[in-house]
Amino acid sequence: MFDVLKDIISRVSADYADVRYEVMRETKIVMNGKELYQIGSNIGDGFVLRVLKNGGFASIAFTKKEDIDRAINIALENANLMSKHTKKPVRFTEVEVVKDTFIPTLKEDPREISIDEKLELLKHYNSIPLRFENITTDIYYFEVIREKYFVSSEGTEIREDLVTNGIRGSLISFEGGIVQNVRVGIGGSTGFYKLMDREDVFEDKTKIVLDLLKAEPIKGGVYNVILNPDMAGVFTHEAFGHFSEADLIEDNPSMREKMRIGAELGNGILNIIDDPTMPDQLGHYKYDDEGVRAKRTYLLKDGVLVGRLHSRRTAAEFGEDVTGHCIAEDYRYAPIVRMGNIFIDPGKSTFEELLERLGDGFYILDAKGGQTSGENFTFGAQYGYEVKNGKVGRIVRDINITGNLYQTLKDIVDIGNDFELGEVGGCGKGQLNIRSCHGGPHILVKNVVIGGV
Amino acid sequence: MLNKLISLAEKYFDEYEIYEMNYSVDGVSFENRVLKEIESKIQTGISIRGIKDGKLAFAYTKNLLDPEEFIDNALASLKGEIEAGFSFPKKYDLPTLNTYDPNIEDITNTKLVEESKRVSEILYEKTNTQINLGAGKGVVSVHILNSNGVDYQTKSSFYNIYAAAMYPGSYASVDRLIADKKFKEFSKEDIDYITLLFNNSKREVKPKGGRMKVLFLPDTMYVLIWRLVSATCGRNIYEKTSPLINRLGEKIFDSSLTIYDDPLNDDFPDARSFDDEGVACRFLPIVEDGVLKNFYYDLYYAAKLNTESTGHGYREGDESIRERPSPSLHHLFVKPGKSNFYDMIKSMDKGVIVPSALGAHSGNILNGDFSIGLAPGLYVENGEIVGHIKDSMAAGNIYEVMKNVVDIENRVYLSNMGIFPSVIFENVSVAIKE
Fold first, then answer.
1. Contact B326, B188 (CB under 8 A)
2. How far lies B327's CA from each of B55, B138, B294, B360, B394, in Å?
3. How far apart are CA B52 and CA A398, in angstroms?
4. Can you identify the CATH homologous superfamily of domain A2-214?
5. Which of B32, B66, B170, B227 to mutate to test the interface with A (most CBs of A within 10 A)?
6. Structure letter (DSSP) for residue A441
7. Which part of chain B is CATH 3.30.2290.10?
């Protein structure tokens, strides 16, 4: 395949060009309640060509080899067009030329496990909530194997595999006119073993979705809250992390001013890191989709902004170092700046100390989608508990929190000493990133707006 | 290759369906009046469903290089023993729709760049704020054939442009999207709409929260409609997770609300005379004068419930070949009312306008609950927009909120999830951080 890619590059007359070819093998088994809905393995493939010419930069994704010439022409035309119209010629930060192959070591390679065994395991976990007549499920096994080949006109040649698998979905309980649901997800990037002996996860979620039928809706208002690692992770990812992605803020002068290096954004106890090099975590990779080696990157240190996530283009634009965070969903997309594993660094407090300090408020768990407008964010939580006098009490539901990013970074007043990263990801920023991983410790946040129903 | 695949499918399956898709699209984006990106895609794909001894097989590939391997993947999926329960449809005489405008081929990327630049500059001059903008065009072709004689093709063209005036320090914005089958100028009216909403709301205000009127713009009507789409989906009827089961014929919303799916209306891009399973499309009322009229089905869930497909089997997701068809409303309309948009604002004594929403996907969708961050909320007092609110949420349940309609706009716009007018609802809970 490298020969085909090198041939494509040799036919592009530009200042820089790279091409990525990927074969994606996907296995999916979907259960709706007791019924099997979909099962099978499939293959897709395709090319993504990027060219940089006279400060104009363009990309094209195409499927067929017959389209190579047409694709080269379109990409060059678009680069020329952009070069003519842009006020800001695109430059790339220089990086090391790499020739490398990275095939991750897996504990039990999912490719070597039969689809029958995967189906049996899925059915087994699915049967745990389905013991109850008022629960249905929407659960699937997924396996995505990306075999990537990358060649650049600078001489970089990288072959890397990304293997992701898991079991995820929702449990839905119903009684009278009330319908409740919780999400479940296990898996990762290190092999099939992560899916074994996980009955406890499904037992816990079953109990929660049944409890939610009897839970009171939370009353809207402003509260002090403890967020569990998943909620803290979603805050870190959605509210803060996206604005550490240089491509999102580069052409937004007011955001860029707020997110300048050296800005005191958070409480002094707050450290936020993105680290795709953590080998056992979902967001692990060695090279990004521009062939740049990933780096552990401090974003916030003692509450001060010290770094951000870059592609080669944005690193040049900001005059900062590349970090290796330019990632594509698959063979249909040019890469964009993405998070790898993002988290708040653990602090010193035990969970009991956090509860004691909270006194009265809510303990809020497990995110259910989140979104941000820059300054303001909104996240759903799957469930929570009322806390009175430092004691965890009754379960509550219908929780959506909203807040201002900068105020909330200052309102994080205590950080737990525990640490947990998510096993399944999924971040949509125009394209999906199933390996986007976040988490952290428990955190205590003051003055959070909760919109009740 | 296709003929080889057909002969293999005939050999191995009792019934089969082949679905081919290809598209080519181009898009440009501007941020803060700077041309940021030009991106193109040329994609193909093919998917097969087979039925053998009543069991369903499924496979897809991007690039049909080896029909035998492809059929093997489909045959392997038979091991799952998924009951089909249906037959692929027979051929009908379908109406001819006007979905493709050859003028689309004349839109060069240069034209996309020039129009985007023109609109960016005008909006910047009028609002003096950051303008983000995207424009795109493309042609999508779908071909379905099956063993019962169906052999349908459709080719659709689309052009779209959206412009957003951004509130400083955030990505909260006032937007307008224009979509058509051919090039369409971003009009003075569209520019005036963004300018008026943005300029009058520049100041940040912090009113008290509570229950008030909320005006959902076409761009945010999806927050409410999403809950209805989910509760009327054949799949959720079958799974018994919809709160609307056994409620057909009941009044669920204000009698001014009529909501229907109209795939045959080719005034808008992507009209269809057949769905992604080759079933003939038809007009389907979902809610008529506030009364729940119909649920919608694909072949699979219709068979499960012993009813007929309503022609709503679509391959969801961003790459259609990869997904099995499932029930989906692709051409949803909320019927327009009688009021001029600006008169609607004038009629509000106190309330908020929602130009964009955060967190529409969270909360208990099936139950009809929503709880969205307003990005931002435009605060209206005595018929005038007086400013924007930053930290606020609107929350409720659609089966309460949609009973209290105050007014509906006399025009509709292609938006997220359908084609909608602006609607004012009364007595909606709005939380505002003090």
1. no
2. 20, 25, 13, 21, 29
3. 45
4. PmbA/TldD superfamily (3.30.2290.10)
5. B170
6. -
7. 2-188
Q: What is the pLDDT of residue A452?
A: 61
ipTM: 0.87
Euclidean distance between CA atoms A81 and A103, whole angstroms: 39
Contacts of A39 in chain B (CB under 8 A): 77, 79-80, 82
Q: Cα Rg for chain B, rounded, in angstroms?
A: 23
| Overall residue count recorded for chain A in this entry | 453
* Phi and psi based region of residue B306 (left: phi greater than 0; alpha: psi -120 to 50; beta: remaining): left
Q: How many CA atoms lie within 13 A of B150 on its CB side?
A: 28
Closest partner CB to A373 (pick from B130, B360, B375): B375
Element (H, E) at A26: strand A16-32
DSSP assignment letter at B409: B
Question: CATH 3.30.2290.10: which residues of chain A?
Answer: 2-214
Instruction: Using the predicted structure, report yes or no on whether residue B146 has a pLDDT greater than 90.
Output: yes
CA distance A310 to A244: 9
In terms of C-beta density within 10 A (0-12 exposed, 13-18 middle, 19 or more buried), how is residue A268 classed? exposed
Identify the burial level of A96 via C-beta atoms within 10 angstroms of its C-beta, where 0-12 means exposed, 13-18 middle and 19 or more buried.
exposed
Sheet with B259-261, strands from edge to edge, namely B291-292, B284-288, B259-261, B332-334, B418-420, B413-415
Instruction: Tell me how close the Cα of A348 comes to any Cα of chain B, in angstroms.
Output: 31
Do residues B402 and B225 make contact, with C-beta atoms less than 8 angstroms apart?
Answer: no
- For the stretch A43-101, pLDDT in tens is 999 999 999 999 999 999 999 999 999 999 999 999 999 999 988 899 999 999 999 99
Surface-to-core class of residue B407, CB atoms within 10 Å of its CB (0-12 exposed, 13-18 middle, 19+ buried): buried
Contact A253 B32 (CB under 8 A): yes
Beta-sheet pairing, B284-288 with B291-292: antiparallel
Cβ atoms of A182 and B362 within 8 Å: the answer is no
Contact A64 B61 (CB under 8 A): no
Contact between A123 and A31 under an 8 Å Cβ cutoff? The reply is: yes
Residue A219, classified by CB atoms within 10 Å of its CB into exposed (0-12), middle (13-18) or buried (19+), is exposed
Amino acid at B47: S
User: Which amino acid belongs to residue A26?
Assistant: E
For chain B, give the number of residues.
434
In 3D, which of A150, A91, A82, A428 has the Cα closest to residue B40? Answer: A82
Alpha-helical (H) ranges within B128-187 are none
Give the list of residues 6+ apart from residue A115 with CB closer than 8 angstroms, or none.
A27, A29, A39, A40, A41, B76, B79
B398 closest CA partner among B433, B423, B373: B423
Q: State which residue of chain A sits closest to B373, comparing Cα positions.
A: A378
- DSSP one-letter code for A121: H
Give the closest residue to B154 by CA, choosing from B162, B145, B163.
Answer: B145
Q: Is cis: bond before B376, omega within 30 of 0?
A: yes
Condensed to tens digits (0 to 9), the pLDDT of residues B49-65 reads: 999 999 999 999 988 88
Rounded Cα gap, residues B30 and B120, in angstroms: 8
Q: Do A419 and A351 meet the contact criterion of CB atoms below 8 Å apart?
A: no
- What CATH topology corresponds to B2-188? PmbA/TldD fold (3.30.2290)
> Chain A partners of B243 at a C-beta cutoff of 8 Å?
177, 179
Structure tokens at B192: 């005036």
Give the global pTM: 0.91
Q: Helix (H, G, I), strand (E, B), or coil: what is residue B323?
A: coil
What whole-number distance in Å separates Cα of residue A188 and Cα of residue B347? 54
Strand partners, A437: A341
* Structural tokens at position A346: 């653990």
C-alpha A421/C-alpha A409 separation (Å) is 20
